[in-house]
Fold this sequence. Notes:
The protein has about 575 residues and is α+β, with helices and mostly antiparallel strands. Helices cover about 30% and strands about 20% of the residues. Among the domains are: about 1-165, no CATH class; about 460-580, no CATH class. Adenosine-5'-diphosphate (ADP) binds near residues 261 and 264.
Amino acid sequence: MDDLRRILRRIDGKGYKAYKAIAGAYHGGGLSLYVDHVQGDPFAAPSKVRCRIPRRRAALPPGLFDNSVRRTALEDFLARQVRRAIGDIVKGGRGTGRSGLVTVDAGGQEVLERTAVLVRSDWVEVRLEVGLPGSGRSILGLQAEEMLCEELPAVAGRGLVWSHLPQEAARRFVECVENQEHLRAQLPRHGLIAFVADGALLPRRSGVSDLPLDAHECVIFHSPDEMRVTLELLHPIPGREPSGRLITGMGIPAGVTLIVGGGYHGKSTLLQALERGVYPHIPGDGREYVVSCPGAVKIRAEDGRRVTQVDISPFINNLPFSRGTCPFSSERASGSTSQAASLMEALEVGASTLLMDEDTSATNFMVRDARMQALVRKSCEPITPFIDRVRQLYDDLGVSTVLVMGGCGDYFETADKVVMMREYQPIDVTRKAREIAGEIPSRRANEGAAPLRASMRRIPEAGSYSAARGGRRVKIDTPTLHRIRLGATDIDLSAMDQLVDSSQTRAIAHALHLLRQFMGPEEDLNALLSRLEACFDEQGLSCLSLYGDEEQHPGNFARPRRYEIAAALNRHRTIRIQLR
Ligand code: ADP
Ligand code: MG
């Protein structure tokens, strides 16, 4: 560490480029500091630094990271502690541009596998971005010394060393995440695809905030008696007080579930909780015991999206001018064709449950009532509506659906369960809905005669896209949660409701780049994604880094699901796909 101090004093006042001299590793004060990347000027992307603390000093209890769920939870927790320590310790503005800023890529309401903090058996490490201080183009070496040699070690100490951490909160966090995964693992045994705990707090503060609504403004979730199930929680982590071992809540069974109810009574809020329920949440989120099966995928209409070689014939046939739908391609899909394509793409990569909301669906994709069937004959209507496929999806393919549908009772016949939201509380109205379906026939004819087929294998062409722009340089950028810039092409992810963290977006962008290396004439999309996930499991997300090596510094990835990676690839504007 003294070497670093010496260099910084030597280059004080020199041109900013002289900072390049500090790249390297420094040791002292109970930690190692690795300067992996040095920015070119105070406005450039910040420099990348890691602080590593050996096991003996960090002394994290092994019981908090002795399986992969606990390790992910602990790493996520520590990243949040580092973020807090930065707020308390780092002085901040130390000159021009980003001078003096320190950031860590910690999470929001969801707990994700991420690369900001790594806990290993011999050490714990945090990856930081820092703005090296400069005044205009000249180095502020003494400021840099204070930052790198005093602030960062203090931040790492506060955020990573057990004796400085809020220990009860750490245990509770890890235990809470592990319990959520334990609940998720119990779903199949109980024939469920989702669980919403009694006492859950579902609504969010606003349309742009993921924080829970204040409890006093909020109706707390309470399962209908008919749907209440009891699941078990784990034994507490050693060192924690034993808590209740059982938890009750609403079990949503596999099959077809309708969520009905008046406008503004909380239908979409419940569905959104299920969408997010594929990830664990932090304690205090309100949805920490709302868990969905991992294969639950939100499907919605997205007119204008690109569709490449997708067999949508189960839903759409005989388009005008005898345009084919097996496969279907479009530079600008319509509402119904985009929704059909997104659905078939999700099935292709293994979706096991579909989540749909009337608010974001194309009406003509969802239903054709008796009167419309009488006016527009089947031979003139390309669409087989979802209502005539939803049962087949479950009966033939085992794919469940949860559908918010306040506007059309023709769906009653198709449902195994009908849940009505009334003043934000769920009521089981299955029996009543069946009675009504008997008394008031819909008179519509089922149009889904042909059986559902497994989709074709789709084989993406590696040469059809690239991350290069202007010569050979790889250019990957993710300006927002819902936008990827890969080379010269933008990918719009605004319909990906289950993308929750911009570090997932960054990981997806890099994954698209990495996937090209796996592509070949026999590699279909499903196989490619499985290979990528195997890489994630074996090497960690660091395998996405352009630096390539876990010892390097890919400090800002969070793990995306295969469905969102596939969705991004499927929306790429130049992708070409072969069919088998
Ligand atoms: P719907 O889809 O039935 O029309 P929403 O789910 O969009 O209704 O909810 C309408 C409003 O009610 C939203 O502003 C939402 O945040 C709020 N809300 C939802 N659930 C609750 C609840 N349990 N307690 C209080 N407000 C809620
Ligand atoms: Mg709604």
